[in-house]
Amino acid sequence: MDWLLLAYSLPKEPSRYRVSAWRRLRKLGAIYLNEGFWVLPNSPSLAAEIQGVIAEVQSSNGVASAFTSQDLDAQQGDRLRARFLEARDEEYSELLGQYAKFVLHVKHAGSTNRYTFAEVEELEEELGKLERWLEEIHQRDFFASNQYATASRSLEEGRELLQAFVARTFEELGESTPAPVDPGAP
User: Fold this and answer.
1) Contacts of 129 (CB under 8 A, 6+ apart)
2) What is the spatial distance between Cα 50 and Cα 76, in angstroms, rounded to a whole number?
3) Cα(186)–Cα(179) distance, integer angstroms
């Protein structure tokens, strides 16, 4: 398999430049190798993103170099793919932890009879953030983690839980229930 490798250095101060480069690479789904390199699968779109990171580093008085490489043997590629899957699995696990908090929030709102439009709006915002986060993780899930299906099903169940809460809220307030909202609709 072909890989993109990036090495860079930035001045210690101001630290915001290092943090910005780190965040950008993490958002792309890059993993950090102990040898001081960040690695991504080689694709034209990711290569363009790496060029952007290089430009950002250089504009911040840093130095950056990027290379393409190939696996020398199958085990090397397998180890890198495993590192990518491990990184995405950690992200999906974190998302599922936040989803569990969402479920508790919905249940607590119901058990304390907080059937208000403000509560509905807050819950919709929470679930929307989780759905956007799932999509971001999925976009950098280059090797198709099995955890995506679990997280996706959980958020679908969350959408159903929220719709039931919305229906109950409208019932409690004596209003007619609106049609369910499609989260993908503009």
Assistant:
1) none
2) 22
3) 15
Structure tokens at 47: 């290569």
**pLDDT tens, residue by residue, 144-184:** 999 999 999 999 999 999 999 999 999 999 876 665 656 55
Residues 33 and 10: their CA atoms lie apart, in Å, by 17
CA-based radius of gyration for the chain: 21
Whole-model pTM: value is 0.86
Is 78:179 a contact under the CB 8 Å cutoff? no
